[in-house]
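Appendix B, example 12.
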Amino acid sequence: MALKKNNLKKAFGKKADVNEDNLGPFNLLIEKKPFKNNAYKSAKKSKNLKQILAMERERQLALDIPTYENIECPPSVLPQRKYCDITGLDAKYTDPKTGLRYHNAEIYQFIRTLGVPNVQAYLSSRNAAVVLK
């Protein structure tokens, strides 16, 4: 079979295909999209009977029945977590002289260099400052 001349594709990049107006930046927001139907609206999702009955049961709950919105719990029996006043990491130690909590020996060396006003500022951040008169 011989190929016919009019069935052959044109060569890529012919000067007739290039338009000087299209050489600038290409903005996809302005360009019309042929695959998008602007008149399309998604179907309204209907609820089945099981969902409707569950919603009715939730509305009829008494106030004394615990739910995630009204649950109350007693105070925790675990000890309160202590955090380093300087770094915010877990505090394993407390300086007996200043009362500052610290994480490791490096931070303890830093605490030793602090003056009284700075120590009071760190203590006031956790409401443990001593008022000096």
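Residues 80-133 form one domain. The chain has a mean pLDDT of 80.
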